[in-house]
Amino acid sequence: MVARVLVQDTKAAKILTLISFNGKSHFSMFEVLLKALAKRGHQVTVVGFFPLKDPIPNYTDISVEGSLPEVVNNMTVDFFRGLGPFNAVMILYKLHVEMCSIVMDHPNVQKLIRSDEKFDLIITQIFSPDCFLGFSHRFNAPVISLTTSVAVPWGNDRIGNPDHPAYIPNCILPYTQYMSFSQRLVNTVLTQVLKLAQYYYSDLTIDELTRKHLGPDVPPLSELKKNTSLILVNSHFTINIPRPAVPAFVEVGGMHIKSGGKLPDDLKAYLDEAKDGVIYFSLGSMIRSETLPREKVQAFIDTFAKLPQKVLWKIDNITGLPHNVRTSKWLPQYEVLCHPNVRAFITHGGQFGTQEGVHAGVPMIGIPLGFDQVLNIMNYVTKGVAVELDYESISEETVSNALSKVLYDPSYRRNAKQLSELFRDRPQSALDTAVYWTEYVIRYRGAPHLQTAAVEMPLYQYLLLDVIAVLLLCAILFGVALYCGFKIIFKIISDTLRQMRVAKNKVNGKEE
């Protein structure tokens, strides 16, 4: 049971939130926080792609809807599979710079820039280039940033948060905190490469874009980042790795999860009648399951046809289904997962969906397709709540084997229930935690005291390279001194022994 702790009252503030990524699932994390802040009396203004369909008090949309296509149920499996982890990040950098340019050029955003508005807080997103940090300079307001995944390497440096590559794996690598030498080598190099790529590939471009729209006096992004008072991160130590963190790094994993939703009557009846249980299958809000190759779809269909359980599948335009499979283009996922008859969740391993699965205590079968999904599924496999199903090896046999494990091995359900308890057991809910720290930053007009001195340190100081160099020099000098000392002592002893031999020979009537 989560103990709900009331946050203290804060004078109503004006909050500007700017979102450049057009992914609906990512916005869900922002939306729940922004609505909570509006409910507490703060005036919330949101620049984004998803204006509220049902407006609420204190919440104002500056809509850029339609300027970019929504990333909702319109991506193919092949697109994800073809990227590769490093290429995916680099493409994301490039696309995000283009997105930023389009949003900044939007008439509604231009109107905001030219306005006389005043704000007490700016909220942005750390996903790729944070192109809206310049607004903190424009409106002279502190910054909070949200990360919708686990912490990304280029976010930690803003607040001096440690990201030691010996035991903190990069978010796009499928490593645990217990890495071999080769894994630590790859992890170290990739983490630094991504930080450098972020700076040289996108930040410098964003600097030009920011100065174009906000004026030539705007500091570079590398300086603006240091003014970040707080980072709210969509992770939690129970499902991700435990890691050291500065006070400005606050985990709010699962904040988007909202309880109390109701299932449509027909769907509830379908789940209620499933006496042998239900398998729920979804590849998330972005990927269309119908873009799976036909042979892989058929492998699932053939497997499902032999099961006593019912199957609820988020997929569209599919034929040849057995009688126990029901499909839909869209489903209320969390409400489905919370139904007591759901026995297994087949997922691509996205951060939001797997958190919902954990919260509901449902064992998972993970089919990671890219980005952080491999890391997410590996985490759950090591905790005994999931089985990984390799995409390339999908067949009737592998699907059947994976389902048999999570359906009939009681340890998976037992572990899932235990992990759910751990994930839920907090002094405050994730949302209350986020609201408290957001209002904390508002109360003190920023919170640089939550950062460490590492924010201002050059890399050589942070890595103690200067200290190591001095110690190494001292060790070398000591070694040289020791060598010279021994050499002198050896020469003295050698000369003394020689003189003794000469003297002895003279006594015996011999010459040297």
UniProtKB/TrEMBL annotation:
Entry-linked Gene3D superfamilies: Glycogen Phosphorylase B
Localization, UniProt: Membrane
Transmembrane segments: 462-490
Matches recorded under SUPFAM superfamilies: UDP-Glycosyltransferase/glycogen phosphorylase (SSF53756)
Source organism superkingdom: Eukaryota
Membrane topology: Single-pass membrane protein
Name of the top EC class for this enzyme: transferase
Keyword rRNA-binding among record annotations: no
The keyword Lyase is annotated on this UniProt entry: no
EC number of this enzyme: 2.4.1.17
Reactions catalysed, as given in the entry: glucuronate acceptor + UDP-alpha-D-glucuronate = acceptor beta-D-glucuronoside + UDP + H(+)
Keyword field: Glycosyltransferase, Membrane, Transferase, Transmembrane, Transmembrane helix
CDD domains reported for this sequence: GT1_Gtf-like
Protein family according to the UniProt entry: Belongs to the UDP-glycosyltransferase family.
Name of the protein in question: UDP-glucuronosyltransferase
Organism per entry: Periplaneta americana
